[in-house]
Amino acid sequence: MSFDGQIASIENDMRLLRIEFDKYMAGALRIPPEEFRQRIERRIRRMRESKLRSFAQRFRIGTLEASFNTLCELHSRRLRDIERGKIPHPRRTEVRAQPDPTKGFVMGESSDHAALEALYKKLYGASGRGSRTDFGSFEKHVAQQIAKLRRKTGCQRVHLRVAEEGETLKLKAKPVRDEKTS
């Protein structure tokens, strides 16, 4: 491949590296494209070490190397900012631990839709009884039962879980006593 072809190929790869890093920053990739960056760096180093005949070729490889270093420094700075917590990483903000319906969870004033959905799936998903009870009805029923338990006990928070009794699954609710009120 000619010198100009190699330069054009590296410039194209640098454009692809920028795209891959943007994908990482958006949360589409799990790890930064470090291996791809290292491959480009090795190619630039090989070109730098080869015999460059003219001043123009040395100038072009120097310009390419400076652009690559600027790109790498920008990416490194953004990664450091993520590690220091200055920039929230989309992957970290999107990923939430799925609630475990058998261990349960605590419901406060507002309902946690994902947790209620996990309870619903555990109770009605495997049994086939879900066709008789839709999620909206289940959510309303749980909200009514929580309100009833709160009025009865005076607690603001309720611990919900799915318990297995024999071959049946049951929804268990238990008031959580606040340390101030006890």
The total number of structural domains is 2
Main beta-sheet strand count, sense and barrel state: 3 strands, antiparallel
Mean pLDDT: 81
For the secondary structure, the number of strands is: 3
Q: State the strand order across the main sheet.
A: 1-2-3
Indicate the percent of residues in helices. Answer: 55-70%
What share of the residues does DSSP label as strand, in percent? Answer: 5-15%
Description:
With 182 residues, this protein is mostly helical. It folds into two domains: 3-94; 105-176, no CATH class. 59% of the residues lie in helices and 12% in strands. It contains six helices and three strands, in the order H-H-H-H-E-H-H-E-E. It has a three-stranded antiparallel beta sheet. A hairpin with a 2-residue loop joins strand 2 and strand 3 (168-176). It is rod-shaped.
What's the SSE blueprint?
Blueprint: H1 3-26, H2 34-49, H3 55-84, H4 90-94, E1 105-107, H5 113-125, H6 135-153, E2 157-165, E3 168-176
Antiparallel strand pairs: 1-2, 2-3
